[in-house]
Amino acid sequence: MKAVTGTFLGTGAILSLGIGFKPDFVRVFNITSATLESIEWNKGMAGVTAIAEGIKRSGDAAVADSKLVATAGVSEFSGGNKAGAAQTTYLVAGGTTYEFEAAAAGDVIPDGFTLAADADVNANAEVCYFEAGCYDN
What is the Cα 26 distance to its own chain's centre? Predict the structure, then answer.
């Protein structure tokens, strides 16, 4: 099994995180938020329209869980895209900080996952923790 954990800075916009493999499961937590919003996704959800990109949970008991349809949550990212000059993504995994920013324009982003634009989990300038894994070796 492959697994990776880390943190990134939310952007409020669509964000692709290259982790070196396509995950079978992903959990993302907004750890800056007072109510600890999170998204849980696994590969099997992709075939179920109502939850194709996961389930969003709020730590606020007054807020119901949400089903995330296509383009609203987590999806596989096949990599190969080049980081654009305006793209800034911060990823910390295994004690190493990876940055895709203007200075790294043209760098190829490896396989991983995409997190949709979201004002709760992927909120601009808020720290998010993630764990992702793959059952294949």
Answer: 7
**pLDDT tens by residue, 124-137:** 999 999 999 999 85
Q: Using an 8 Å Cβ cutoff, are 113 and 121 in contact? A: no
Contacts for 31 with CB less than 8 Å, ≥ 6 apart: 7, 127, 128, 129
Domain of 63, in residue numbers: 2-134
Q: pLDDT tens for residues 42-71? A: 999 988 999 999 999 998 999 999 999 998
Looking at the structure of the chain, the number of domains it has is 1
- What the block records as the tokens of 66 is 């949400």
